[in-house]
Amino acid sequence: MTLLEKIVTELASAPEPLLLQVLDFIQMNKVASASISDSENLSRIPGLHQGQIWMGEDFNDPLPMDNG
Fold it and tell me: Which of 31, 11, 35 is nearest to 21 (CA)?
């Protein structure tokens, strides 16, 4: 028995509320998967925000100890 056949067999005996949850789960994952694959196709542009970021001179200094 294939995986799809096993799923169909289980769904055939499942109550209606569970079927609605399964349907919502499948649809939600399809949308999430599509949005992930869309974002993977975007190329990054090096230097796009050059000069727009400021970092303090003490950025690499140790943080002060918290005596609280």
Answer: 11
Average pLDDT for 48-54: 89
Which of these, 32, 33, 14, lies nearest to 22 by C-alpha position? 14
Question: Tokens 């096993």 correspond to what residue?
Answer: 6
Query: Residue 57: helix, strand or coil by DSSP?
Result: coil
Residues 6+ apart with CB under 8 A from 19: 11
| 54: Cα within 13 Å, side-chain hemisphere | 1
Position 54: which residue type?
W
CA distance linking residue 37 with residue 14, whole number of Å: 32
pTM of the model: 0.49
Q: Is 52 helix (H, G, I), strand (E, B) or coil?
A: coil
Please name the residue that has the structure tokens 């970092």.
55
